[in-house]
Amino acid sequence: MGGLFTWTVSEDDRNSSVYVIQIDQGGLTLPTRDHYINKTGSDPIIAAYLEYMTKVGTLLGGSEPEVKEQMKDIIAFETQLAQITMPSSERRDEEKLYHSMAIGELEFIAPFISWPDYFSHAFSFVNKSISVNQSVVVYAPNYLRDLTRLVSDYMATDGGKAQLQNYLMWQVVKSFISTLPKSFRDAGKILRKALLGTDYTEEVWRYCVGDTNSILGFAVGSLFVRKTFHEESKQIVSPVIVPN
């Protein structure tokens, strides 16, 4: 689920024997920042995005005129996120992107959120405690600094708070659209057509298989190997993989 930034747990780029929390810029719905910068409401992709958002909002029970105005505010906020997002052309040197620090230091750099509380809650589901000394890798510290200022500006007024809440709620809604009734999934054809030139929608069974494989990849792979590769195949291949 996106929203403001992205994070994951993966192998440390500088020590593959260690898994570490990795934090990066994020929060945009359209594929790149270029889809937002210097664009107006008449831009075909922005117009399609607004139509898509409005359609989803009305399917959820909102009044179309009111929903449309709220979605315009969300696009305006995402545009500001795009403006502080580092272009991909400046992210080619992975060594320069890598910033290892403790969560306590991250709290100082980007205090728009309580990072210890955020990660403590996230990891409570796997019974792991997170302290301010926990090491993390941040790939976009400047983005997080600018994001802190942006969020602070929005939090300064009631209207800004409402717009920020609407943005976060939109992030939740769109992450579940693929699991909602067909009318919601069909709404996505509007934006897909504008971005890709086709409104093709993946068949439900293919989506289910792909989603399962992406989440349970190792388990699915194990089942495939057990069914496809017999013991004699293992005996033939083993000397090649693990030579004597």
Which key features would you list for this structure?
four-stranded mixed sheet
Question: What does this 3D model show about the protein?
Answer:
The protein is of the alpha+beta class and 244 residues long. Helices cover 58% and strands 11% of the residues. The protein has eleven helices and four strands, in the order ββαααβααβαααααα. It has helices spanning 44-59, 64-84, 94-97, 103-109, 115-123, 141-155, 158-176, 182-196, 204-215, 217-228, 231-241, and strands at residues 5-12, 15-25, 99-102, 135-138. Strands 1-2-4-3 form a four-stranded mixed beta sheet. Strand 1 and strand 2 (15-25) form a beta hairpin. Helix 1 (44-59) crosses helix 2 (64-84), helix 1 (44-59) packs antiparallel against helix 8 and helix 2 (64-84) packs across helix 7 (158-176). The protein is globular and about 65 Å long. The model has no long low-confidence stretch (mean pLDDT 90).
